[in-house]
Amino acid sequence: MNKGTKAWILVAATMALFIGASRAAEDVSLLKDMTSVIALLGLPCGQVVSAVKKGDNDHIATCKDGNRYRVFLNDKGRVVAQKQ
User: CA-to-CA distance for 28 and 24, rounded, in angstroms?
Assistant: First the structure.
């Protein structure tokens, strides 16, 4: 391999590393947001451990205690959590 090819491989690997870290940070932020929303709505959860996006402003959140909620915006623009 020549120097140019090695340089491009290094750049690509570095970019992949930063993109992965950025997505992980977004995931942590989303989990914290889902935990806060569910708690503010007075529903049992503890901590959201995973969230799957179903659409714009529509997620399925799985809690540490086993509860699952669909968290979404209703037609009035309010955040709702429905037990699944």
Answer: 6
